[in-house]
Design goal:
Blueprint lengths: L3 E5 L7 H16 L3 E2 L7 H15 L6 E5 L9 H6 L5 E5 L11 E4 L5 E2 L10 E4 L1 E2 L3 E5 H9 L21 H11 L4 E8 L10 H10 L1 H6 L3 H5 L15
Parallel strand pairs: 1-2, 1-3, 4-10
Antiparallel strand pairs: 3-9, 4-9, 5-6, 5-8, 7-10
Length: about 240
Amino acid sequence: MPRTFFAVLTERTVQDHAVNTLLDIAMDAGGRGFTRIRWGYSRTDIARNEIIRTFKKESTDPDDYLVMLDNDHLMPADVITRLTKWDQLVVGALAFRRGPPYFPCFFVRTPNDEMTHIVLDWGGPGLVPCALVGTGAVAIKRRVFDMLDEAGYGWPYFRYMYPPGQDILPSEDIYFGNICEKAGIMHHVDTTFCIPHLSSSIVDEGTWRQWQADHPQMMKTGEGWDRAMMGENITETPKAGENA
């Protein structure tokens, strides 16, 4: 009977939103009998490779799953089950880049055989095949690592590669995706749900001035301040005869 293992890549500090998400996931996983692999803070590629090393020692079935979760996303409590239910070799959750231009975190091959992340439409919610999927939340079958070993792409499976003279420095999951593609291992992205990226922000006078510009009706009437102060998202509808 295949087993499911999961691990969280930790930072020195984690936002409270993520902590609560991860606690919910741990409760759900414990109730389902999943096995947790613990690993402390370290560089991302090292963490992933050491987690995989432990997984390969403890797992026995080629269909055992390893689910790796980053700690800078909001995720549903049943994210592990959602990713593993598809019974595919590699499945990642839909995520988007943290900053502009906010492109989706998966890559496809164009008709010209070029890799691109500029994906404007992937159809309705479902499982979408792709050349490479981001690893913010990813499920990988044990047999994937065996296939990579056999194809000559053994441990470490995640590596930072810095091509000389290139301005964009690819992350460790790009290397993993590339070797999977070379070994004939298809990736998929689950577009039935999204794991929002968490980020930090600053608040200054410019933030206040922009808020005023976005809420002209409230600035005129003063209505809604109490709700806004309580954190409610105010969407204004101008009164009849007034311009926003």
